[in-house]
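User: tokens in, sequence out, please.
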């Protein structure tokens, strides 16, 4: 993997000296090596690529689950698998109920084809759009955790994109000012 850093994290997820990173990588290395995960880099997601988004969710869900003494393995793995679908949607489409309802089922089918899933992991993937989607009601604590981390990562990713955009605009404005003087 070329880029293996979660957004806003100081941890290099390729750092074999870091025991926390080693623990995380032992849980997800088989998924990170899968061509399906690499394929996600070809799809836009919250102004990033989807592979980066699922890596963000996976890392932060792992950390929080570990802190809360929940199933950190299920959270780390399902962070990577929860958006395993292969089509683009624009940010304007985010509110479309069809996408909100259908993509968790597609992600679950793709994840089942990729790896063996426990009932808890299936629940996390299928219900990660909670509370926007409430069709499937057998939720466990880890499902709520991943659903919340997914929303927080979305906010973080969109904020980072807006910040990059405003910095570019400010730099252009500054260049124009300097060009005139
Ligand atoms: Fe997501």
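Assistant: Sequence out:
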């Amino acid at each position: 993997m070329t880029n293996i850093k979660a957004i806003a994290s100081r941890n290099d997820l390729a750092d074999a000296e870091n025991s926390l990173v080693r623990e995380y990588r032992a849980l997800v290395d088989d998924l990170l090596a899968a061509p399906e995960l690499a394929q996600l880099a070809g799809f836009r997601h919250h102004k990033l690529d989807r592979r980066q988004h699922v890596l963000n969710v996976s890392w932060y869900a792992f950390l929080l689950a570990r802190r809360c003494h929940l199933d950190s393995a299920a959270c780390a793995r399902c962070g990577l698998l929860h958006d395993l679908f292969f089509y683009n949607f624009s940010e304007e489409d985010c509110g479309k109920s069809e996408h909100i309802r259908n993509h968790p089922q597609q992600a679950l089918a793709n994840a089942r084809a990729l790896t063996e899933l426990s009932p808890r992991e299936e629940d996390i993937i299928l219900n990660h759009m909670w509370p926007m989607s409430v069709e499937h009601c057998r939720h466990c604590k880890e499902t709520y955790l991943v659903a919340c981390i997914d929303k927080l990562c979305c906010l973080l990713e969109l904020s980072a994109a807006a910040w990059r955009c405003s910095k570019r605009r400010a730099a252009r404005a500054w260049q124009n000012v300097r060009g005139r003087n």
